[in-house]
Model the fold of this input.
Amino acid sequence: MATHEFAAQESHAHPGPQGFIRKWVFSLDHKVIGLQYYFLALAAVFVGMFLSLLMRIHLVAPTAILPFLGDIKPETYLTLVTMHGTIMVFFVLTTAPQGGFGNYFLPIQIGAPDMAFPVLNMLSFWTTFLGFIVMLAAFFVAGGAPLHGWTGYAPLSALQSSGPGEGLGADLWIISIAIFCIGALMGALNFITTTLDMRAKGMTMMRMPLTVWAWFVTAILGLLAFGVLLSAGILLLMDRNLGTSFFVPLVTINGQLTGHKGGSPLLWQHLFWFFGHPEVYIAILPAMGMCSQLLSVFSRKPIFGYKAMVYAILAIGLLGFMVWGHHMFMSGMSPYTAFAFSIMTMGIGVPSAIKTFNWLGTLMRGRIRFTSPMLFAIGFVSLFVSGGISGPFLAQPVLDIQLHDTYFVPGHFHLIMGVASIFGIFAATYYWFPKMFGRMMNESMARWHFWFSFIGTYAIFMPMHYLGMAGMPRRYSQMTEVSYLNGLIPLQKFITYAAFVTIAGQLIFLVNLFWSMFKGKQASDNPWEATTLEWTTATPPPHDNFGGRTPVVYNGPYEYSVPGAPRDYVMQTDPEIKPAH
Amino acid sequence: MGLILLIVIWLITFVSTYFFVAKTWWLPVGASAAAASIDHHFTTTFILMGVVFVAAQVALGYLVWSYRDRGTASKVAYSHGNTSLEIVWTVLTTVLFVGMNLASSSIWASERFRAAEANSVQVEVTGMQFAWYFRYPGPDGKFGATKPELEDASAGGEAALGLDTKDPASKDDVVTGTMVVPVNREIEVILRAHDVIHSFFIPTMRFKQDAVPGLAIHMHFTPIQTGEYEILCAELCGLGHYKMHGMLKVVSQEEFDKWLAAREAEKQ
Done:
C-alpha cells in the first residue's frame, strides 16, 4: 500500500505463530479471537433461534407432537423462553458486536498491532466459551433448564422447589452467567486500555471512527455493569445452596415453609436491572456505531454531526445507568422513585433521537450506494425508529400499568435491542467480510437475505404491539385458559408463520457466509472505498496488522467527497486536507 | 433499489399504522374511574409518537430514494453537520419527551401517591402458585391473623391462606376464589404473595401491581361498570402461570351486601 503514508519507523514485523493450536485455538491474535467470538455467537444465535421456533409452534399448537421432541409442556415452554432470552442477550448480542467485531477491528481502526493484553484477550474468549458450554449443559441435567425467565426474578429463581428446572439446571444457568461476566470484565478492561493507550500517532480521540467510540463506551458500560451482575449471581447461588436469604423472605411453596426469611425480592430486581438496562446499550451501541460508519461510507458524505454523535454515545452511556427502575414501575418499588426514573428514561430518548436525526442528515444530499451492508444500515435506522417510538409508552408509569409484562414489551425490545442489533451484526459482516476473509460475499444472496429479514422482522414484532395493547401477557405458554385471549390466537398464528419465513431467510445468510469464504470473488484491499485504517492494510491483515509499520493519522474518519480531492474519499493516513468550506 | 426501499418502508409504515388507527386490536374496555384519563393519555402519546414514527419512516424512505447514486448527476454536499439544527432538534425532543411525561404525572400521582379513602371496601388479595384468593375482613373491619405454618394449599379457602381461627378477628373473615366488589366504590386491595412474585392484572380496570412475598402492598381502584372481568397473573410465577386467573364481579351495592351477608351466614 505505497499510496499511504506511514511513519518512517524501523520495521518490527512479528511473524505469526505457525502451529494450528497456537494459531487458531489458543491464539493471542485479536483477529483470530474476534473470529472465535463471532463463530461462537453464530452457533449461539442458531440455538436461540431454534428455541424461538419451538416457542412459536407451541403457542399456536399447544398439543402438537413434534418429531424427535414429543410434546412441549407448559414448563418446557418457559424453559425455551428462559434459554432463548439468556442465550440471545449474552452469547449473541453481547458477544458478536463487541467480542467479535470489536476485537477484530478496534485495534486496526486505531492503528495498533494488537490489543493491550493479548493473553487476557485469549482468556476472555475461552472464559466466554466455557460459559456457553455450561449454559447448554443446563438442558441435559436432571429437571432440565430453568423456567424463571432471563431476568431470573427471585424467589422463583432462588428456590429449588419453585418449579421444574429450578434444581441443578438453574444453578448451571447462574454459574454460566457468572463465568460470562468474568470473561466480559476481562474483555472490557482490554478494550478500554487499548483505546486509551494504543492509538497510532495522530489518532486523537476526536479522529476515532464512531465504531471505536461505540466499542469504547460499551466496554465502560460492561466494566460497571457485569461486576454487579456477577455479585448478584453469587448471592443468588448462596440463597439457593447455602441457606442464605438475600433475596428470599419468609415464603412457603405449596404450603411448605422453605426455611428462608428476611430477604428482599426487590433487591434482586434492583441489582439485576442495574446491569440489565446498561446491557441494552451494550447490545445496541456497537450497532449504532456501525450504522453511523456505513451511512457515511455509502452516502459518500461525512457523518452529520460527528461531535454530536460522540456526545450522544456518552450521554446514552451515562443516562443508561440511571434508568434501571423503569423496569420496576409495577414491582412494589416506591411510586415516587418511579416518577424520577421515568423522567430520566424520557431523557435518554433525547440522545437517541439526535442520532436518528443525524443519520437522516447523513443520507440527505449524499450519493447513496445500495451495497448489502448499506441495506442493513438503512434497515437498522428504520427498526431503531420503530422500536424507539414505543419506548415513551413504556417509560411513562401511568401507561406502563396496562402495558407492563404484556406482548407490547417483547415487541418493543425485540425491534430495538434484538433485531436492530442483529442488523448491526449483519451490516458489519457484509462490510468487513472482504477484509476478514479476502473475498466478497455474494450480493444477490445478501439482498434476498435483507428483504426476508427486514419485512419478516416487522411481520413478527409489529403485531406483538397489538397483542400487548389487547392485554396479552408475556410468558403465557397457552392462550386457551383466559376467554378473551382466544380471540387473539389468529394474530399469534400470523406471527408464527412470519417467524418460519424469516428464519428460512436466515439460511440464505448461512449459505452465503460459508460459500463466499471459499468461492467468493477475490476482494481488493479497499473494496468499499472507505477511509478508515483497516482499509490501508493488506487483505486479510498480517499478524501484526500493518506489516511492521505503524500508520500515522492526519484526517478524521469520514472525509468523503472533499472538494478538490482527487478521489471522493480521503484516507485517514492521507496528507492532511484543508478543504475550502 | 432506492425506489423498492422507499415502497417497502412506506408500506410497512402505513400498514402498521393502519391497524393502530383502525383500532383492530386496541385496549380492552375501560371500566374503572381511572380508565378514561389513562386512555386519554395513551391516545395523546399515541398521536404524538405516531406522527414522529410516520415522519421519520417517510423521510427515511424518501431520502434513500431521492439521494441514490445517479452517477455524475449526483452532487454530494460536503458538510460535517449543522450545529444550530442539532440544538433545535435536541430542544424539541426534550420538550416533547419531558412534556409528555409531566402531562401524565398527575394521573400517576392520583393512582399511586394517595392512600385509599377511609370508606373504601377492603379486599386482601393473595397470590400463590397458581391461584388468587380474596379475603374480606367482615363486619369487624379487621383481618384476622394468618400463620405460614397453618397453610394447607390443597384444602383451599381459609386453610390455603393459613388463617388462624384462634384469633377473634378471623371469626368473620370471608375467603373466596372470586372477587366480588360493589360498583362506584373505591376498592382498597392489599396484595400479598406466599411463594414467588405474582402480578395482579385486571386489564379492564387499568390495574396492575406485583404481589411480592414479604410485602403487603396497598393499592386502590374504583370500578364504574357492573359486569364480570378477567383477572390475570402478569408476572412469570412458574409452570402454571398461564392458567393463574380469576374473575372480578362488579355488582350493585345491594347485591354486594347481600352476597357478603350470605358468605358470613355460610361461615357461622
